[in-house]
Specification:
- This protein is mainly α and 184 residues long.
- It has a domain at 154-184.
- It is built from four helices and no strands.
- It has helices at residues 2-15, 24-27, 54-144, 146-177.
- It is rod-shaped and about 195 Å long.
């Protein structure tokens, strides 16, 4: 739009023979008048058609051209920032995807470990149940023979003494049979 506006203004000034440069007449200073002398006569006016404010038209075109240049710089800067943002976004997406893949692999490994541990737990529970059954059977057997064990424990010393006397008697009998004399 700015280019179009500049083009329209330049076209207008060209069609109306308006010079975009200041003329020498507008740059001259008033002649010096000494005290007491008559001032110079005023310049002739309106001898030609209206020429407009020639100095200002150059300023407007220059300002619009400067605005256009500034906007082009801003657009270039915005495009560069957008490209940078897109690159950063793509990098972020790649990092997130890699992170998700790594986490999914870790999750799968952990789920496999949990399944193995559950299988081991089931096996251990089965082994425990079997061992508990063996223990219960052994305890039941020990309870059934407890009365006999108690009898042996209570009468152990008496039976020990009796066996010793029996062994001594057998040793004497053997000696007698071998010809020993005990004075009977």
């Amino acid at each position: 739009m700015i280019e179009q506006a500049v083009s329209v203004l330049e076209d207008f000034y060209t069609r109306n023979n308006l010079n975009l440069m200041q003329t020498q007449a507008t740059l001259t200073q008033e002649p010096f008048v000494a005290a007491g002398e008559a001032p110079t006569p005023p310049p002739a006016t309106w001898d030609e058609g209206y020429g407009g404010a020639k100095g200002e038209n150059e300023g407007i075109v220059a300002i619009m051209t400067m605005i256009k240049t500034d906007m082009e710089k801003d657009i270039s800067k915005a495009d560069a920032e957008e490209a940078k943002s897109i690159a950063e976004y793509n990098k972020l997406v790649e990092d997130i995807d890699a992170n998700i893949s790594a986490n999914e692999a870790t999750k799968a490994d952990l789920e496999g470990a949990v399944a193995n541990d559950e299988g081991s737990s089931t096996t251990e529970k089965g082994t425990k149940a079997t061992n508990q059954g063996d223990l219960d059977a052994t305890l039941a057997f020990l309870k059934s023979i407890a009365s006999g064990c108690d009898f042996i424990a209570i009468n152990f010393e008496t039976r020990k003494t009796n066996r010793q006397a029996e062994m001594d008697g057998l040793a004497k009998a053997k000696a007698i049979l071998n010809g020993a004399d005990f004075g009977f």
